[in-house]
Each structure stands twice: as structure tokens, then as C-alpha cells.
Amino acid sequence: MRPPARPQSTKASSIISRLDRLPYLRKYTSGLRDAPVSHVVSFMILHEITAIVPLLGLFALFHYTTYLPISYATEHFGEYVQAGVERFERYFKRKGWFGFGQEDSGTSAQDAHVEDAVQRWKNGEQKYGILVEVALAYAITKALLPLRIIGSVWATPWFAKILIRFKPSLARKT
Known about the structure:
Low-confidence stretches: 107-111
Structural class: mainly alpha
Number of strands: 0
Largest sheet: none
Strand content: under 5%
Distance between the termini: 45 Å
Shape: elongated
Helix content: over 70%
Order of helices and strands: HHHHHHH
Mean pLDDT: 79
């Protein structure tokens, strides 16, 4: 039995009507139909939490233990590791964190960037150890994206109820 139709945009109603045909998604689509803003906000918050928590957790694991799967990560998630090294090196330079500064010159060609960072770390430049650890944590977190999305979608209705329950206290002006 389908819930009563509400006026919606053509595109949104088309998507929801397609999703309604899949019985196992009806409980999620009814939530989207009844409270779309709370569900979208809930999904976005959960999606960010499922990115930040693994990133920080994996970095802590790599930093405070001897476990550092460099070869495995570069073999399976090479482009993510490469992107992580490039992104976080630029960020650390811009912020002046961990000993990186604007005066640091760029490293070698893009293809050897990860290897160059690992080599510099092995040569005693500790700031590159942190860079490699963050890049590996970033790569694994990116590789977990499908699981993060599934988990966020699954928890969205529950989290939307929590947000709705706390909405009056969040909206109060102090």
C-alpha cells in the first residue's frame, strides 16, 4: 500500500516513485517523502562522520603503532594514496604544520611523489612520515566510500528522528 501522494517537483516524484517499486526501500522513501530536509541533513552529517572518524582512527593507528601498509595501499588504492600525498602536502605547507612551510620546494614528478615522500621519511624527515600516514588513512577512507554511503543511508531515518527531537533546543536563541 502506497502512502498518499503529496505535491512534489516532477523530478523528485519520479525518483521516489521509482524507489517505491523496490519494496525493501519503501521505509526509507517514505521518510524522504515525509521529512526531506531532516533526512538530507541527517545523511550529510552521517556521511561526514563516516569520513572523519575512520580518517582520524586510521591515522592514529598508523602513527602510534608500527603498522603501516604502504605497499598494500599503493598497490590497491594507488591513485587515492597519490591524491592524499599531494593534497595533504599542499595543505600542510599552506598551514605551516608538521614542519612544512612555503619554502619547501615541490617534490619530484607526480608519478614518483608517493615514493619520494616515503624515501624522505626513511631518510629522517619525520614530517614526511606524518604525510604518508595521513595519505594512507585518506586512501583507505576513500576506498571505504561504498560502505560509508550504505551505512549513512541505513542510519539516516534513525538520525533524522534524533535531529527532529533536538530541533527545538538547537533552534533556541541564547
